[in-house]
Amino acid sequence: MNRKILKWFTVSLVLALSISVGSATIEWKILNTLELDAPPLDVAIFPNGQFVFILTHDSSVRIYELNGRLRNEFKVVKPAINFAIADNGKSVFVLSHNGNIQTYGLGGRLRNKIEIGKHIDQIRLGPKGEHLFATNRQNQTVEVIALDFIQKISIRGSPFKGPENAPVVIAEFSDFE
Fold it and tell me: Do the Cβ atoms of 142 and 134 come closer than 8 Å?
């Protein structure tokens, strides 16, 4: 009995896997056309899928809702050639023609600058925002760059015990059982 069930399952699986995906049809429709006053260079989608980011030829990042309403716009480094949106949705990485990557907040405030080199022509962020992939089509290379985000935390005015400039020791008990 078990062999018959196994044989039936195997035949069913083979038939299911042999169905051609290419025979499926795709239905589609244009939801909206965004009218811009400058040519688009690159497009990215906000991680939640509700906003469209457009990098334009005049070095602007424009944030649109899917219904076409302009949500925000800010100028970035000139001339910008490519950009990427962090998965947390809080940062925009912009690659300039002179090989710099500048990081902006969604309000347009410049946060950081990474000097990567003029040989890079495109950037993409990894799924967790921990890696930046920088491509060079001419040299046929991809540079994988590890990103560490370091936040300065002000402790000014915070209470403390002992001397203000006392050394801090961090102990790790790695073989604790």
Answer: yes
Where is pLDDT greater, at 38 or 47?
Answer: 38
Residue 108: both structure tokens together? 């347009």
User: String of b and e for 80-105 (b: at least 16 CB within 10 Å)?
Assistant: bbbbbbbeeeebbbbbbeebbbbbbe
How many angstroms separate the Cα of 176 from the Cα of each of 15, 55, 145, 172, 173? 54, 52, 34, 9, 6
Q: Give the confidence band of 3 by pLDDT, cuts at 50, 70, 90.
A: low
Return the structure tokens found at 156.
């000014």
Q: Which CATH number fits domain 31-146: 2.130.10.10, 3.90.70.10, 3.40.50.620, 3.40.50.720?
A: 2.130.10.10
- pLDDT per residue over 111-154, tens digit each? 989 888 888 989 998 887 788 899 998 899 999 988 877 778 88
Alpha-carbon 60 to chain mean position: 18
Tokens at residue 176, please? 């604790």
